[in-house]
Amino acid sequence: MDLLARAAAIEDEATALVAELPTLPPARLAALAAELDQIAAAAPADAAGLAEVLAAVVAVYQDGRAVLEGWAVVASAAHTLRRVLAAPDAGHAAALAAVRFELETLLPPIERGPRAVAVAADVPVAALVRRT
Description:
Largest sheet: none
Number of strands: 0
Shape: elongated
Structural class: mainly alpha
């Protein structure tokens, strides 16, 4: 099956899963994520980037860590992926950037380690006076 046919199958599956809400079958999500990973490995760079982010978002849904209301964004992104693969030279840069942004809003925040702790001042506030 070529990339375009696989992307069309992904779009059909993502759209069909809308009817399954509020429960998304984990096995179907795992298969969808695996197919997206394969497309990401074989597609041109712009489509591969979208497929990678889409696979990451599907994995978050599989783990149950994403809001269900965002699944329509996933289905829309699958449609965009199919369009990009259907016409790779059509100049989809703006659409790809917008879809990637929408998908990335569904991902959990990146943990950056411990937060900074406020340090007490070395000089008492009462000792601070304005010099004229």
